[in-house]
């Protein structure tokens, strides 16, 4: 349900109290971006304090100050949006600012439930501001904060001047684990190019892949693997100082020195990485095996011995990318040994216990009836925990992409442009609480023809 030329794009602006929503709103209402924006502003409480902070601008500001937009004023939201339609010629875009305590879900649902609004308006995107300095005080015990992050298409990690780069990296990794499809911008005083928050176009697979090229892939307990064609003998595995004091790795044999052979060892390596590791100190000898090794990385120059019993193909899986430790392999003469094939993986970082995202990326055509029935049962049983669904689907007997978007138990979709040659594929992402990756993939695959 992305914006089309005939519908009015609507942006939902959300974020916890003090995250910088009003600051961003002031920028939207004052900068020369060529858009006429109707703003619906909301406060928490009886007195509209925020309205006094909004600097003068030509756009009219609609304010409801008797409660949260997601519950008590929902009828007022529909009424105001309906009234706006009578003045359609006076604006090009609608911005709805939620209160800091609001779950953005019911706001997004408005554009699926009301027939009049559904025909005239389309959810262009959800923009969430996150207070980089204080969000960790709320993220573990506030469902609102988790849901605001989970619903977002764009996240502004604001107030970055108040925290260190290391803290920002850790916070961004945690946010990404909760919502891998959102684009994250680091901002100070909510300064952002308006093109990054307006006219997002709803779900855009290319944009999602730009955020994370691997976001539709399964997650792995390692970031890198390399396949080597090696002669018998000892090889030096050299590493420098890196970000972690230790790293898990597995050195194993492969069927052949080919990319296919390396792919076939991946699932075996996943099983190895689920076992208990053996701790090794620098200088230790590592032989090809089903054993998970944890190598000590404390020090500036570290060396481990990879012992190859016979000439053949061998694969090295590492928890972190070798570049992080300036790692490389040399033969007995000190010559560097390069991998014949190497691959990077989407790492399985520590996830928030509640909110995660599950991507499905499958070729083949869907049976419409089977898909609708599977989705009906899924949403009936788990809809409350599924915050957002969005994707591009391939249905049998249709030559066009089907763009799909949903919020909790409500969903909508439309036929898009024709598939290009070699492009046809199903890409779908679920964002929510307590999601079962295997069950979602199995259910989706059961709908294929």
From TrEMBL:
Gene Ontology cellular-component terms listed: cytoplasm
Gene Ontology molecular functions: hydrolase activity; nucleotide binding
Classification via InterPro entries: CobW-likC_sf, CobW-like_C, CobW/HypB/UreG_nucleotide-bd, P-loop_NTPase, Zinc-reg_GTPase_activator
CDD domains assigned to the protein according to its UniProt record, in alphabetical order: CobW-like
Catalytic function, reaction form: GTP + H2O = GDP + phosphate + H(+)
Keywords noted in UniProt: Chaperone, Hydrolase, Nucleotide-binding
UniProt KW RNA-binding keyword: no
PANTHER family assigned to the protein according to its UniProt record, in alphabetical order: COBW DOMAIN-CONTAINING PROTEIN, COBW-RELATED
Free-text function comment from the UniProt entry: Zinc chaperone that directly transfers zinc cofactor to target proteins, thereby activating them. Zinc is transferred from the CXCC motif in the GTPase domain to the zinc binding site in target proteins in a process requiring GTP hydrolysis.
Annotated protein name in UniProt: Cobalamin biosynthesis protein CobW
Source organism per UniProt: Leucothrix arctica
